[in-house]
Amino acid sequence: MTKVITTGNFKGGVGKTTNSVMLSYTLSKMDKKVLLIDLDPQANATDLLLTTMTNIYKKKPDFKETLFEAIKNNNPQEALINVKDNLDLLPSYSDLQNYERYLYDNFSDDYSQDHHLTNFINEFKNEYDFVFLDIPPQLNKFTDNALVASDFVIVILQTQERALKGAEKYIEHLLELQDDYGLNIDLLGILPVLQQNGSELDLDVLQDATESFGDNNIFKTHIKQMNRLKRFDRTGITDNTKDIHDKRIHAIYGDLIKETLERINIFDQK
Description:
α1 packs across α11 and α6 packs across α7.
């Protein structure tokens, strides 16, 4: 059964997009069929995957419509891009900033507006093992639609105070939506993204997060600050088995996927 996963935090710049893309990419390497839907008008996930497609796989992106046009026409296939084996993308573009206005103009109540994405992806999501939703770090209809459509949420926690507060507010909003709409959605976990390896601030924020969310809700796998991850934005995702920096990153994300699947399995058993 398809698993729809949103990565988020109400604080920007915490690594939400990078981790959404890397989770998608890593699962696709494991013969899982994955779709990433870029619901952020800034299109950072789209830029990273199209750079990877062009530079690494030497493929030219070919799609007939932007995601927003596909939404208006209810025809996602026109916007779909195959990035690599087992990895597809519904790309963002600047016109996606009109999505909220489209919802307000075409649907008269919050329920219909907030369930729009659910209905849109229900037509094709079963073609995939996983669907990842990358969204802006704000409280808006992008966030509400993504959460309503999701089975699981991974909250990205960069180890800084503002990110911790953003995570707390994000989970509060998730619980409100869950109550309002009777959603069957679970918090898969809080993923720590460390600013500096072993710094006192990181350790303090992690301790506060553990006290706030509970130890079981914190991923054991931590994403450390790595220059190679930043470099991917420029080069695309490189995966050279002879390069120690590439090997280190992909090994960490392999561990993260293993833990993610274990957490999903626990929820499925319940």
